[in-house]
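In this notation, each integer encodes one residue's backbone shape. One such record reads:

___
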Amino acid sequence: NGLVTGGSQRGTARIVATLITGQTDTVLVSAQPVPTDILTESGDNQTARADSLLTQPLVARVVGADALGIAGVWVRFDLRAGNGTLAADSVRTGSDGRAAVQYIMARSFAPHVIAATTPRLPADTATFTPQLPS
């Protein structure tokens, strides 16, 4: 029996276990903190004509308590207002904690609002508000 603790440190650790008979085995374990926030990283407040793709993707970032990105977290992009088109409804974060999706503006006088959420942080939302030109 053993206990391995790492606190809030991240990275790869090599763990060597030895039985009382002398046999050993080694395993590499990758650790990262749990997500603490989802942020609107980039792509907010863009302007694009109706029926056209935004110039930049909408990028949400999931971070831990150390403000570094958390990899492998599913982020859901959901159209809350307007009637544009998202290229995907869910994207997994990369090694930098970022999840990105393309958005096509629609002909709508209603505001366009896209929310990025993750089940790992049910109370948090990153919001994007692209606009049609005036």
Observations:
- The mean pLDDT is 90.
